[in-house]
């Protein structure tokens, strides 16, 4: 499989890892859109939000628990942050592996379009 996020999770591609557990990895985005821009990714390949089900939803819960810890460690928990997951072509999902963008470190735009 040539999924870039699977390769990062398997340590075949280096990343600036900020958090890791048995099931997830979080790393700094190479093209940050905010002072803090971290991608939080399940290690198991889940293509998109459309593929979350009862068998893999536990890892999604773990991702959101990790986002809380990461936001605190990055110093943005109190000031605020945004979590985004793009789904499908119209949602501009560029990597077909479920991932969540954690953005913060400045006042973010109110518009997303």
UniProtKB/TrEMBL annotation:
GO terms for molecular function: catalytic activity. The active site is at 99 (tele-amp-histidine intermediate). Residues 4-113 form the HIT domain. A motif (Histidine triad motif) lies at residues 97-101. CDD domains: PKCI_related. Gene3D superfamilies: HIT-like. This is Histidine triad nucleotide-binding protein.
């Amino acid at each position: 499989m040539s999924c870039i996020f699977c390769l990062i999770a398997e340590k075949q591609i280096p990343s600036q890892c900020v958090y890791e557990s048995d099931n997830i990895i979080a790393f700094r985005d190479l093209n940050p859109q905010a002072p803090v821009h971290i991608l939080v990714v399940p290690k198991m390949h889940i293509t998109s939000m459309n593929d979350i089900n009862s068998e893999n939803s536990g890892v999604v819960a773990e991702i959101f628990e990790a986002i809380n810890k990461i936001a605190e460690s990055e110093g943005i928990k109190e000031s605020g942050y945004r979590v985004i997951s793009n789904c499908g072509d119209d949602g501009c999902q560029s990597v077909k592996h479920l991932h969540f963008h954690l953005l913060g470190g400045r006042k973010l735009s109110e518009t997303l379009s």
